[in-house]
Amino acid sequence: MALHCAGKADTNHGFVESFNCRLRDECLNEHLFTNLRRARRMIAVWRED
Hints:
Blueprint: H1 8-11, H2 14-28, H3 36-48
């Protein structure tokens, strides 16, 4: 079975890299997520801020 993956050009975009870096540094590394629902909620709160 073949899987389609997005090309590297999508992830090399400066805005995407910057967003992913900020998300990781400011949200994901700061919280311990016990389940997917909590992770989604915390990420939504972070995005609104």
